[in-house]
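User: Second chain of the day. Same drill as before.
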Amino acid sequence: MSQNTPQTIDLLIEARWVVPVEPHGVVFEHHAVAVDHGAIVALLPIAEARAAYAPRERVELGEHVLIPGLVNTHTHNPMTLLRGLADDLPLMVWLQKHIWPVEGQVIGPEFVRDGVELAVAEMIRGGTTCANENYFFPDVIGATYRRMGFRAVVGLPVIEFPTAWAKTQDEYFDRAIEVHDSFLGDALVSTSFAPHAPYTVSDGSFERIRVLSDQLDIQVHLHTHETAHEVEEEIAKSGLRPFQRLQKLGLVNDRLIAVHMTQLTDAEIEACAEAGVSVVHCPESNLKLASGFCPAEKLRKAGVNVALGTDGCASNNDLDMFGEMRTAALLAKAVAGDAAAFDAAYALRAATLNGARAMGLEDRIGSIEAGKQADLAAVRVSDLETQPLYHVASQLAYATGRHQVTDVWINGVRKLAGRLLTDIDTDAVLAKTHAWRERIAAIDAG
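Assistant: Same format as last time:
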């Protein structure tokens, strides 16, 4: 073949702007992303791409910004079926009086499957291509993500009381290992440990998790320091703050994904930075439950990897990562008393590459770089709500709505085309959702 013969590839996406996230803060104009066998081959100017490649499919996005698919680093996606069930309540009342009683009657494979299906449809339409999942029946969750072609890290739950998933601590761990092994080598689905929180998990279980996390080389995805009450309760019980307890048990390391973290001392922030802990900021859920304010800018300045998550739809009430970016940036400025805090480029990084890094996937996703998987989202910014456009990153963080996402690819497969889901029967998803609404409303009313 001649040296000048264009290389045949699967896909060439040409965009008005490309924000690769890495290098940080860079915006490329009139660039194209070449994709073959699910992976990014190159990012280069459109004219050069047309000369170098012969794509089987070409997508021209003349009014769009192409970004890495957004990464939702903390979700409970089966709980999408509980959206709006119990609002305007503090965390423990919300949990103990409404969420846990309803879950006790509905949790099972069908509830989990149908909730994930609804969540995946919503996430794809909002430009999200990867979720860090934390819920029961991880076998069903993982199988649903795999079937739907969605990327996820599925949490292996551990909690100190019987549930529909497991009755004893040994059963929680035995089933966790089985689920982990079942997804080894999967292209889209991997696992982490997901102990619920320090107040619901014993030292013995945490010690087992630490050993197994090391042996299996997987992350530990954990709610911690979510509220002041949680911290006070732990101090009264053990004389330690929850974070100190985790340090004592050896869990504060570069595998820890610490979610919420609204109650932190400067020493704890420094310890997170030194140990390589990733913190997941869930600003909208924390605001709605009045849980407190994560010191996101302090964490960023200390060098901590800060990612973003929506939390579950029962406490948010959506899976909108564009909304989360905007809220995180605005809230960080108010908390820090600094208008320059958590700037637009960092907000996008927190919603993409930092999430990938927290989940141990930074070598595969989170930025538009050759060799990474083609998880991509196209955002139309020609709408009047995002005009005039002076700074692309600022527009994405502060003005763009998820309804402006037009096209999404996961692993090089197109999942959204011109706002239409390519392989999800939305009527069927909605029919199942409506059936669950009737059943759940009757339970909560009782």
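The chain has 16 helices and 16 strands.

User: Great, on to the next one.
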